[in-house]
Amino acid sequence: MKALVYHGPGEKNWEDVPDPKRQADTDAIVRVDTTTICGTDLHILKGDTPEVTGGRILGHEAVGTVEEVGSGVKTLSVDDRVLVSCISACGACRFCREGRYGQCTGGGGWILGHLIDGTQAEYVRVPFADTSTYRLPAGTSDEEILMLADILPTGYEVGVLNGHVQPGDTVAVVGTGPIGLSAITGARMFSPSHVIAIDLADARLEAAKAFGADLTFNNSHADAVAYVRGLTDGLGADVAIEAVGVPASFELCTELVRPGGHVANIGVHGKPATLHLESLWTRDVTITTGLVDTYSTPTLLRLVASHQIDATRFATHHFGLNEMLEAYDTYGRAAETGAVKVVLSR
Amino acid sequence: MKALVYHGPGEKNWEDVPDPKRQADTDAIVRVDTTTICGTDLHILKGDTPEVTGGRILGHEAVGTVEEVGSGVKTLSVDDRVLVSCISACGACRFCREGRYGQCTGGGGWILGHLIDGTQAEYVRVPFADTSTYRLPAGTSDEEILMLADILPTGYEVGVLNGHVQPGDTVAVVGTGPIGLSAITGARMFSPSHVIAIDLADARLEAAKAFGADLTFNNSHADAVAYVRGLTDGLGADVAIEAVGVPASFELCTELVRPGGHVANIGVHGKPATLHLESLWTRDVTITTGLVDTYSTPTLLRLVASHQIDATRFATHHFGLNEMLEAYDTYGRAAETGAVKVVLSR
Amino acid sequence: MKALVYHGPGEKNWEDVPDPKRQADTDAIVRVDTTTICGTDLHILKGDTPEVTGGRILGHEAVGTVEEVGSGVKTLSVDDRVLVSCISACGACRFCREGRYGQCTGGGGWILGHLIDGTQAEYVRVPFADTSTYRLPAGTSDEEILMLADILPTGYEVGVLNGHVQPGDTVAVVGTGPIGLSAITGARMFSPSHVIAIDLADARLEAAKAFGADLTFNNSHADAVAYVRGLTDGLGADVAIEAVGVPASFELCTELVRPGGHVANIGVHGKPATLHLESLWTRDVTITTGLVDTYSTPTLLRLVASHQIDATRFATHHFGLNEMLEAYDTYGRAAETGAVKVVLSR
Amino acid sequence: MKALVYHGPGEKNWEDVPDPKRQADTDAIVRVDTTTICGTDLHILKGDTPEVTGGRILGHEAVGTVEEVGSGVKTLSVDDRVLVSCISACGACRFCREGRYGQCTGGGGWILGHLIDGTQAEYVRVPFADTSTYRLPAGTSDEEILMLADILPTGYEVGVLNGHVQPGDTVAVVGTGPIGLSAITGARMFSPSHVIAIDLADARLEAAKAFGADLTFNNSHADAVAYVRGLTDGLGADVAIEAVGVPASFELCTELVRPGGHVANIGVHGKPATLHLESLWTRDVTITTGLVDTYSTPTLLRLVASHQIDATRFATHHFGLNEMLEAYDTYGRAAETGAVKVVLSR
């Protein structure tokens, strides 16, 4: 089959590789009907993720069709159409039994396109298939369900639920890439009074409005803290969501939040941040971090199926599966192309 | 001044009475600019509430203007425009300190138009004025804020929050009078997949659609349980909200709910219901009852001010304050007039 | 092997039966080292549970040793010593993924000694062995862990956690059989101010003191409601736990509870109760029902291993496995023998 | 009257000052029967708290007798015996209505011995007396209730409740001064499996055992992270409580905590800490900060009155009120004297 293979920092290719084979009885082989590219894939290509070794097929998001199942797969059948989640779950370890699949100690967690071959291919081996895939609800498209493989649960769980967004809240989202837009989308499920998108690029802020931000603020040349306090009787945001992954944006979030509020970090960080405990210690703030667990995937499937969430908005560019390299190019130049998510389909 | 005075079962009059006077230093006198009539007022007039004595001015909902404040009132000034809540709160008892103002043991709770004179008058004495009134947010109308005096917090707290409505849920609301419509409005703040309005009258079900019910079901001639199970893989509703107040509708809710779901009773009951523990004991259900506490009023003010809730939809009929008896007539024949809430203004 | 076989109402025998065989690859065969008898077994013998058919081996509680595992069992090995839980969990259905194993729709739930052969035998087939058994912690005895097969998680989850017992609370437990004593034991984990045991039998109340009730009340001849209100400034108990299973004790709980409090039903009911909504509708009560899910079993294992819970107190009488009929006799006459739990060991 | 007056950094005196007078109708004048000294008082004396001006009477903890009440005080009478809380609460602002009194925007918060004269005196003016004092429960001593003025609610709310300690947890408490010991005491209310006290001084660790730490670890010469992971299958503590107030101990807590765990900061910090987001971003941790709110004071009063908490253990040294300077000396040399709390009584 064809697949996108990582060959070390800066090196990738769409090339012929052997078809995947089942290795455990709980594996399924899934034909990839639709896949996409994640910011994390770009990080891997930069060499930021040294545990990814040369020869690895990338990708951890797909919608596909079950081709084969092992004898240990109890709830899936050949020809079932499924969402392949970015997180695999053994289903039996302590963390899986608590719904914290991202922390699975039984061999799951984020492994696809990371520790094992991934979804940017014609076929993919999916371990623990019963607990790592979800059937497609009636009346939904592959393209919208694809957004539930990673970005929507990430924004919803790590941003919105960890941040405890509640009706009437003022929510500040710092960073309006795909994850920030997912957090905005998810926050809207709780009817906040205001969702303030904060970014350095006007074009991204404009996009944020379409995803549900009623207020936007470009903090490249002005003070976002003063702006948010001005909107909130001097108190600050009820929830500040970090969706960039650099110290400055995290530290901004800790200044944006009101006493008693929540800072929810989603960003992937490579460096430590400074935590100003000398002022924060009295301010009753709650700060959370988290890898997505995908425990919210069943909820999000219901929200998409009932049109509470319009996930098609994320799919800005479309390609054939064989146009993988062009898709990488478009996604890699998102600032220029305006790509939010690229969709590759058979 | 003029006021609507109760003179025993079936007897009321819009008549001259002495102006209210402050009795405690924490009292305010508020000029009533807008008031309304509640289903509870009709119950009082039927004689269902024997603790209400002849000579009592009815009404527990108003928006008005502060005329006088006692020396113990610290946060209000003359000419402040305020929402007068149906629940008064001493602010110091155990229950008030837990935000459970409806259970106030310090002299508050539901007293207006019940144990003391109420708001269907030109002026009203408001006890514990600091903790029993709310300033009007900028850019809101008296009419929409009036809906926060009772029905919106009742539907939201006792129905939606007690029922623990969550994104993606299927919510069944039994009864679509003003309280049921408030519960539907409040439930929508949490983006349920479906809100199913259930009633015996097609006209009310039609109205329910305008308030956010995406599905309606007339249970006068068909089986609501079968209908809801058919929509939910045989499981039942995540949340069933009782907004009628008779045993049959409560018992229906306990059948509508799925294992692990919530039944939230809002209805005012005069008789016991049967609780089928012989089937419910294994079904992991949570049943809640409650008088409104109005702890959610600040949140609801934010939701109205930010246009997340359109409260003007409730105000179906308008009258002058002096047309009180006509307003009672219109509201008393709601099935015929289609009245949801009548608004009386100076 | 030998097993306790149910032969229809009133008929049971300790007799030779074929050894159990694996039927699915996720099955394990466990040698029963220790088992016990549950009140539910007595109900079955009375014919109250018609879904239990003649020829069924009873029992749903055991500690044992793994003899065989199917190819789908990933985390257990032959010779592992395990707790066999009363609840089997498929691990993949919606309810299992939410930790609500008692409601498993994938073939689990309460099946042992009910829908399939159980643990009152020399060997037992355990379905879904990965997610239905727990390894024994170091330093614990079989006998104390046996109490975690059913009664301790039942009292803790359905009574204490559903009832939301908190430090400083006044907790009333109505009924002091094994389940009531489990609820008392579990409640003590949250340091309530008072645990009031209420029962009709002085001997059981005396036993309740040893399990952590600091106050006891015999309600055969006096008014428990007046007693509890007298202790609580007239308010009532923060939490009332029903551990009998008859309408009168449930109705008592709804009167014992304070405004804003919780009624947690554990009792197995055969008849409906009356719910006095005409008084309860204003009292902000939360009523819960539930079958045990055993999601708390890992927590309870830690509590027993760290000596926070002394589970050996429950084991009042000891027998050899072959003395099954004598053990039934002793347990069936608990009022006379003072049996809380009988322990049968190889 | 006599009072302990701050005269700028390093300068204090027990001297004659005018008796306090009521300034608002919600004030009470309380005769101080028992007071104590807090670590914060030592910080003020070092000059770390520049908002405290010369001439200020220090102290924010007392048990006393009401001498006078203003007309706005509704629930207290002369001769009532009360706990004077370190936090004053206006009772009407947004934060007070949410129980977050430490963030009061209506003139309360931590003001006693800080922004207004405090309790280390023969009499003290207590603002917002209705909502800032608590009656003494029957059968309790002044000395034990005094511990509820600050340290016990601080350890319980900011450490235990913010840290979400649950039965069966492993809790690490870093720092075993009075606040760390309060956190240990509070944690025990939830029956953790283990409470590990971590400190640099063996004498303090020894004391920690008496307060409920079952394990102790001196981290001056060994690796606490390795120790805690060794106890927890390599995972780390469920909850890590910071009770020192320096960057190193906070950073240690973020390493001690398991994935999915809680870090609760209680320490008063003067400098920023480093937050290692490059490793924490995937670890699902929750970090909280907080000033005490004293919303738990009613609960703690019940826990002391019912002997769930033995607060007398904190009172290691006793003085007459006139021995204030000796008491300061003893408390200031706690490492040497072993003082946890000094109690000064009339």
Structure explained in plain terms:
The structure is a homotetramer of 346-residue chains. The first copy, chain A, is of the alpha/beta class. Chain A folds into 2 domains: 2-149 and 293-345, Medium-chain alcohol dehydrogenases, catalytic domain (Quinone Oxidoreductase, Chain A, domain 1, Alpha-Beta Complex); 153-288, NAD(P)-binding Rossmann-like Domain (Rossmann fold, 3-Layer(aba) Sandwich), CATH 3.40.50.720. Chain A is built from 13 helices and 16 strands. Chain A has helices at 39-46, 94-97, 129-132, 142-146, 151-161, 178-187, 202-210, 224-231, 247-256, 277-280, 297-305, 324-332, 334-337, and strands at residues 2-6, 12-16, 28-36, 62-69, 81-84, 123-126, 133-135, 170-174, 194-199, 215-218, 237-242, 257-265, 273-275, 286-288, 315-320, 341-345. In chain A, the strands form 3 sheets. In chain A, strands 3, 4, 5, 6, 7, 15 and 16 form a 7-stranded mixed sheet that branches. In chain A, helix 5 packs across helix 6. The first copy, chain A, is globular and about 60 Å long. The mean pLDDT of chain A is 97. Chains in contact: A-B, A-C, A-D, B-C, B-D, C-D. Chains A and D meet through strand 12, strand 13, helix 10 and strand 14 of A and strand 12, strand 13, helix 10 and strand 14 of D.
